[in-house]
Amino acid sequence: MASSLTLVLLAGAALTAGNDVMLLDFSAEWCGPCRQMAPIVAGLEQEGYPVRQVDVDQEPGLAKRYGIQGIPAFVLVRD
Question: Whole-angstrom Cα distance, residue 16 to residue 61?
């Protein structure tokens, strides 16, 4: 399953390629599935994709802004 998610994220990033794209990774320290996704997200960062880690406990306003109701959650922002 993780490899499928990686492909989806990479495809999304490739389709919207440019300097104005960022992946928001909504997670929390206590979240087991978030920790499982961490190596995949780190791999995207190592490949040069811009990723911003968002801890929902520390930035609840940002999570609310994007309608995050469960984690891990990923939002590809283009602007």
Answer: 26
pTM of the model: 0.79
For residue 58, the number of C-alpha atoms closer than 13 Å in the C-beta half-sphere is 8
Of 68, 50, 48, nearest in space to 59 by CA: 68
Find tokens 């978030």 and name the residue. 34
Q: Give 51-77 pLDDT, tens digit per residue.
A: 999 999 999 999 999 999 999 999 999
Between the CA of residue 30 and those of 1, 56, 72, 73, what are the distances in Å?
21, 11, 11, 14
Q: What distance in Å separates the CA atoms of residue 19 and residue 77, rounded to the nearest whole number?
A: 11
Q: What is the pLDDT of residues 13-37, one digit of tens each?
A: 555 556 688 999 999 999 999 999 9
Task: Return the active site residues.
Answer: 31, 34
